[in-house]
Amino acid sequence: MVEKQIxxxxxxxxxxxxxxxxxxxxxxxxxPDCGGGxxxxxxxxxxxxxxxxxxxxxxxxxxxxxxxxxxxxEQEFEEFWSRYxxxxxxxxxxxxxxxxxxxxLQQAACFGNGIRILRQDLxxxxxxxxxSQNNNMKRxxxxxxxxxxxxxxxxxxxxxxxxxxxxxxEALSDVDVLKxxxxxxxxxxxxxxxxxxxxxxxxxxxxxxxxxPRQVHKELTDxxxxxxxxxNCIQLFGLHQIxxxxxxxxxxxxxxxxxxxxFPMRRYKGCAGxxxxxxxxxxxxxxxx
DNA sequence: TATCAGGCCCTAG
DNA sequence: CTAGGGCCTGAT
Length: 289
Known about the structure:
289 residues; alpha+beta; two-stranded antiparallel sheet; globular
């Protein structure tokens, strides 16, 4: 177990910001903790506990205000989770860049000041955001879990809990098999992508190494089922291009209402995507998911 | 029962 | 190139 004190980090906010669909709160009494050691059962008062699955890894994290317990060993924390949660980045500096005149963004950033842009796995993000289109959060989660349980490798975490890894491209390349997964019309997009990646027509490593975000965006939108919005989500969440600025129906409304003369992209060059997350979370959180 | 959800594809004009 | 219809499904 790893204990840390971390500012600008809030699991609930990140889970509800809609960037990751495999992060869920564990209700306390629903966890009998059978077989777990005494240490596992220790919750500090008023803490929340989250289960996070990332590609083929799993960890549980407890939070109470700015205190955290990661239920993994020091090495795994340093080598993987610290980076995954983007803990080396100072988000206070991003917030400081917000214009003092900009009341709306000030409030949004205050409301969601624990949001970070996770460094998720590219393939996983492509799949989950293909599913996200014209869809709601609850159903997106269901679809993703269903894919993992049906086609992902079953694994056992260090604490003894079982979970399902994200299935790879080959496992999701047959549209007929995906038909029963409740994906709706999106199944054909997933299957096409799975085929394209497993056969090498889409090269994930090459996408990761490409320098020009505009070219990455072009290549992504050339993929069947990926439009402007989903491409930007993939760049922001799967490639950590935090300048990417996905415009969905929420953001569109926000921009019309609060930035009729256009959002000041210049000012937020290098962190526009972070601001997008603050605004999205603020608005969707207020309206009640 | 109708509507809607963090869009995208495809076809007309 | 822009506009608009149609789309799977489950939750409300």
